[in-house]
Amino acid sequence: MLLFLLVIIPFCSSFVSYLSFKLNKCAPRYISLISIILILFVTIKIWFSSNFYTHHLDHYPNWNYQLILPWIPRFGIEFHLAIDSFSIIMLFLTFFLGIIAILCAWNEIKENEGFFYFNFMLVLTGVIGIFIACDLFLFFFCWEIILVPMYFLISLWGNNRENKSSSINAANKFFIYAQISGLVMLVSILLLVFSYYQNTHILTFNYNLLLFNTIDSKIEYIIMLGFFISFIIKMPIVPFHGWLSDFHAESSYCGAVDIIGSLLKIAPYGLFRYSMTLFPNTIQKIAPIAMFLGLFSIFYGALLAFSQKNIKRLIAYASISHMGLILIAIYSNNEIAFQGVIIQIISSSISTAALCIISGQIYKYFNTQNILKMGGFWSNIYWIPAFSLFFALSNLGLPGTGNFIGEFLILFGTFKTYSMISIIAVISIVFSSIYSLYMIQRIYYGPSQKSCLTLFPNIKELWILIILMLVLIFLGVMPQKILNIAQDTISSIYHFQKEFINSILKTRL
Amino acid sequence: MIINLQELTALFPLLILIVSSVTVILSISYNRNHSIVAFFSIFGLIITLFTLYFLISIVPIHITSLFYITKYSILYISIILISSIATCIFSYSWLLNYPFNKEEFYLLLLLSTLGAICLTISSHISSIFISIELMSLPVFGLIAYSNYVYYSLEASFKYLILSAISSSFLLLGISWIYAISGNLSISSINYVLSFTSNNEKLVLLFGVVMVLTSFLFKLSLVPFHLWTSDIYQGTPSSILSFFSVSGKVALFSVLLHIFSYNFILNNKILYVILSLVSILSILFGNWMAIFQKNIKRFFGYSSISQLGYLLIILLVLKNNYIFSLETVVIYLFNYLFINISYFGAIQLFSNASNDIDLIDSYRGLFWSQPVLSSVITIVLLSLAGIPITLGFIGKFYILSMIIKHHLWLIGFGFLFGSILGFYGYFRLIINLYLKPPNKLFTNSKVISTSWIHISSKILILFSGIFLLILGLYPNALINLIHFIK
Questions:
Q1: Which residue windows are transmembrane per the record (chain B) (predicted)?
Q2: How many C-beta atoms lie closer than 10 Å to residue B139's C-beta?
């Protein structure tokens, strides 16, 4: 029942907040904020009432809670929600960033607030659904459902208020990329289900059953490739990265939409949860390709970030570069790197979100996103430059911040299995420091290009940034707290996969 | 010819329709009264819909050699009847401002419905031919009903001529078939084909291809699709919801009936032709829809692609008969609800002289008419096949069939077509939510709030809600299909 609340509260609050706009202009934001806090409490309740340390590590999956309702029995589809520690961490991240996104949008979204929060809560519902879905059809359903409200968020509350055509183009681009990813995934899910049906004559979309499939290795390879492609489109990894920079550049200036974009860390989650466990026999066959793509996007993202003039595009390419590292870690077949993925997902989301908020602040004061038109802002604004220096440094992995721990664990873990790749990936830190310093130098140092009074930033934004900074430092200083929570799921996924590989080796002998 | 009571019961819906059309004729000749005629025809259609319930227990049944009613025909007939009822309701308010004779409209509609229902259940080529003519001849009149409107007469003439050509193709095909088989019932063709020599088989197949050509004409599939957009543009929107549903549903059910015999599907050439037609229709329909400025032309092209999706079912029919028929029903119900709410919404903006059919004039509709444009959004999402709408369930069914039977080429066509389609549909959707360019349209063109429109509004709202609910919980529809089975 608790799991059902997690989905139904944001879903209902989206409609309520849309309708409440007629009554009071401020009502929608309060309703969405309250509903997020409510589901946060629900999650905390789930977290405390479940015992994480009693599971056997070599047994996967071990859900803490499950909810199974019949949905479409014709196809063996169930409304099946389940939660384990990995999902809980992702949910906490979602709620945290969701609250921050609402706070960012608090006074900045001035037109059609009801519809904005309607879409916002729908996206959040979909994201929560993805993190706790245990039925492949339900997973796909939520995966698709977030696209439409996301499309509206980008196209209607875009950067450019007079001419909507560029933000509509960005939204179209996002939507078409996402749809290609979705359709490819639907095809591979159906292929998996029907192959399972052919072997066992059970038509089911249940994740727990499909885990133990014994399908032909060629078909499994194709299905695995389908999942791989659909996830890396959404991540995005380099050949499919075209939508992300437009998405960032055209989305609303206050940064709310970008933050939602960064809470869409569903693709690494999906790769981890689905690709790793559903296809343990073939996942390592694609590892070299995935590693290469990951490395390529690390360097490509860093290089392009260096050459951007638009500050938001710079952030977008930087996050592409980070995604490359996460991809390498996921395919590295090492437990320590897997733990690094968790930390890296959390901390890169937070630092990207913080940079987006800062760029929104700059846009608000100086009405430009062009780096070349900036310069010397250090003396023009209080506080903001120092914060952006901190977040830029954390983005490049300064010790003491979460990103450092993430990168360190990833590189350290990968070194055991793929040492060459780990060594090459280490060089990327140099590249990321180049673009981060370039950004800081061009924006804040040098001669002041605009002569205006020194500005004092909004108190609310300041507090948001302080909280984000504290979280990043917390992650950097005490990562073990987070690692403890997710430990059991991560290692059981790792052992589950290992077990399969070993059993195949044994049968071959 | 002796008809027993059971067969007579099976013909009950047709008899009621005939009685109600005769009543309409008599009422017109006695005293012209628009409301009474409209009431009679809606009442007759609703009664016909209810009599379908008696058929459930006695189907499947052969009525002479001409008609064959199956369980699924009941569903198809109900789709046709619902679309006729919706058309009557929509047209009533439209006809109030019509300057000439209003009452014959309902007569034409009833006759065309009768033809469509006969076509759905006919199993003999002669009855197929007669029903097609009965179905399409009144439609010429319906399209030309607002003949003072720009494009309307042109559309009617175009449809007249093309329909005549397709009928002549049909006759040519029938005569080739008759030359070999000597019998025109569909089951006999199957029987003959399994015994004839190769040369004769070729002649028979030529006949079948000719018949198929005529059907593709009527279903407006590539390469016989060129008339579609012009005729959609010229037809009043209240009629379009009928024109677009009933004819296509009826023809498709006949196609399903013909193809349920093995003789066609075991033939390689026909298989290739059908798969090409389906791929090209999907791609072309979605591709051309992107460039349209007129909202009715847009739907014309997108209906080409919808029928293209549906045609895929014919290719897998022999492997998985029951499942494909289920798919057809779900897809056609989706198509029905889409048509009712889409054209109903356009009809609310139309007056007697013309429809408002430019896409630009719907800009920013959401901010003045939130409920109506939410329904239009649901409709467009359902056309595109996005989750939480019935269209997605239909698409899911079709995609699962494609994958189950390994039709990879068609699968690629499906994917590309869908992605093209997304672009087109979302262009329309976002148009509803943008700021209106000038306040002129939204302020001056307020939908009249008179009581006449309330019934149309309720109908639109309900079909939109059906799309949503059945998309979230398709079990209701699936159970209905299983109940009838």
A1: 12-30, 36-61, 73-93, 105-122, 134-153, 159-181, 202-227, 239-259, 271-292, 298-317, 329-350, 370-394, 406-430, 450-473
A2: 26
pTM for the model:
0.92
A263, A349 Cβ separation under 8 angstroms: yes
pLDDT digit string, tens, across residues A404-437? 999 999 999 999 888 999 999 998 888 888 888 8
Contact predicate A291/A324, CB 8 Å: no
- Measured between CB atoms, does B430 come within 8 Å of chain A? yes
For chain B, count helices (H), then strands (E): 22, 2
Taking an 8 Å cut-off on Cβ atoms, the answer to whether B478 and A72 are in contact is yes
Nearest by CB to A168, from B367, B388, B430: name it. B430
The reported pLDDT for the residue numbered A105 is 86
A303-338 per-residue burial string, b: 16 or more CB within 10 A, e: under 16: ebbbebebbbbbbbbbbbbbbbbbbbbbbbbbbbbb
Nearest CB among A144, A155, A184 relative to B387 is that of A144
Q: Residue B91: pLDDT above 80?
A: yes
Between the CA atoms of B14, B20, B23 and B24, what dihedral angle is there, to the nearest 10 degrees? -120
What is the DSSP track for A381-446? BSSHHHHHHHHHHHHTT-TTSHHHHHHHHHHHHHHHH-HHHHHHHHHHHHHHHHHHHHHHHHHHSS
Across the A:B interface, residue pairs with CB atoms under 8 Å apart total 66
Structural domain boundaries, residue B394: 5-484
What residue in A sits closest to B380 (Cα-Cα)?
Answer: A148
Q: Quote the minimal CA–CA distance from B386 to chain A in Å.
A: 7
Query: In this complex, is the C-beta atom of B475 within 8 Å of any C-beta atom belonging to chain A?
Result: yes
| Helix, strand, coil percentages for chain A (3-state, nearest 5) | 75, 5, 20
Residue with tokens 């920013």: B364
Write the burial class of residue A400 (CB in 10 Å: 0-12 exposed, 13-18 middle, 19+ buried).
middle
Q: Flag if A147 and B386 touch (Cβ within 8 Å).
A: yes
- Hey, are the CB atoms on B400 and A164 less than 8 Å from each other? no
For residue B185, give the 3-state DSSP assignment: strand
**Which of A100, A101, A98, A102 lies closest to A29 in space, CA to CA?**
A102
User: Helix or strand or coil: residue B472?
Assistant: helix
Specify the number of domains making up chain B: 1
Report the residue of chain B nearest A75, measured CA to CA: B397
| DSSP three-state, residue A82 | strand
Contacts of A72 in chain B (CB under 8 A): 474-475, 478
Confidence of residue B85 (pLDDT cuts 50, 70, 90): very high
User: What is the interface pTM, i.e. ipTM, of the complex?
Assistant: 0.91
Identity of the residue in A147, A168, A187 whose CB atom sits nearest the CB atom of B411: A187
Provide the H-helix boundaries in A256-334. 256-263, 266-270, 276-278, 287-306, 311-330
The amino acid present at B368, given as its one-letter code, is S
Q: Which residues contact B37 (CB under 8 A, 6 or more apart)?
A: B24, B27, B28, B102, B103, B106
